[in-house]
């Protein structure tokens, strides 16, 4: 092996040792595995708080999955609630800017604003209303209308049921300082069956 480059009389690299990196076990937020093995696999991470290591973690998850499953085409999706949460860590953030589409970054608040302009009653827009709305009075005033919009949406029944559950779960978490009956009254015209489910 050739000698490392030198700057003046000092060597730029002290040594070139082999190191052992500890194995790690990571749980991904989600993975999209296509039925067609020729299509890319996507690993997704959702970020609602600051984490300077999110890019590094995603790349590690992608690498581990690719090695374990012998996947040649694997890509990442990072969903940040807001752009301010994106540490834009290099070199990985560069993948987002490149034309290779190896990394997709979504800023959820911006995405939902654009989607709302196109379709204000889209289930995804409705279900996130209470997350991004800071004023609890606005949520209390609109929760019933939002929930009924979800019920009436023309989407797959299983997906609709899951979105309804998420909406109710987030509503009860947001107003955990209120009694069960007060929260129920926010969506008061739901059926007895749905109240039981809640």
Structure description:
By secondary structure, the protein is an alpha/beta fold. The chain folds into 2 domains: 1-111, no CATH class; 119-198, no CATH class. 46% of the residues lie in helices and 13% in strands. The chain contains 8 helices and 6 strands, in the order E-E-E-E-H-E-H-E-H-H-H-H-H-H. A 4-stranded mixed β-sheet has the order 3-4-5-6. Strands 1-2 form a two-stranded antiparallel sheet. The longest helix has 18 residues, at 157-174. The chain is elongated and about 65 Å long. The N and C termini lie far apart (68 Å). 13% of the residues are buried. The model has no long low-confidence stretch (mean pLDDT 84).
- Unreliable segments (pLDDT under 50, ≥5 consecutive)? none
Nearest-integer average pLDDT: 84
The radius of gyration computed from the alpha-carbon positions, rounded to a whole number of angstroms, is 23 Å
* Beta-strand content bin: 5-15%
Distance between the termini: 68 Å
Helix content: 40-55%
Tally of distinct domains:
2
Shape: elongated
Structural class: alpha/beta
What's the short story on this structure?
The chain has 198 residues and is α/β, with parallel strands linked by helices. It is 46% helix and 13% strand.
Question: What is the topological layout?
Answer:
Layout: E1 6-7, E2 10-11, E3 30-32, E4 41-47, H1 54-69, E5 74-80, H2 92-97, E6 103-107, H3 108-118, H4 123-132, H5 136-152, H6 157-174, H7 180-186, H8 192-197
Parallel strand pairs: 4-5, 5-6
Antiparallel strand pairs: 1-2, 3-4
Helix pairs in contact: 3-4, 4-5, 4-6, 5-6
């Amino acid at each position: 092996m050739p000698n490392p480059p030198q700057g003046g009389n000092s060597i730029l690299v002290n040594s070139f040792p082999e190191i052992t990196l500890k194995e790690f076990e990571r749980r991904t937020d989600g993975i999209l595995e296509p039925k067609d093995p020729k299509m890319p696999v996507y690993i997704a991470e959702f970020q609602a708080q600051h984490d300077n290591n999110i890019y590094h973690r995603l790349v590690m998850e992608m690498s581990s999955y690719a090695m374990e499953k012998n996947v040649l085409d694997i890509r990442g999706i990072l969903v940040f609630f807001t752009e301010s949460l994106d540490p834009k860590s290099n070199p990985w953030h560069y993948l987002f800017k490149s034309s290779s589409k190896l990394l997709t970054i979504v800023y959820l608040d911006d995405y939902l604003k654009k989607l709302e302009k196109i379709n204000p009653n889209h289930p995804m827009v409705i279900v996130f209303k209470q997350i991004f709305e800071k004023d609890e009075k606005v949520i209390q005033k609109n929760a019933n209308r939002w929930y009924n919009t979800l019920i009436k949406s023309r989407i797959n029944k299983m997906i609709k049921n899951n979105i309804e559950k998420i909406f109710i779960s987030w509503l009860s978490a947001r107003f955990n300082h209120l009694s069960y009956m007060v929260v129920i009254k926010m969506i008061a015209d739901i059926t007895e069956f749905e109240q039981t489910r809640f």
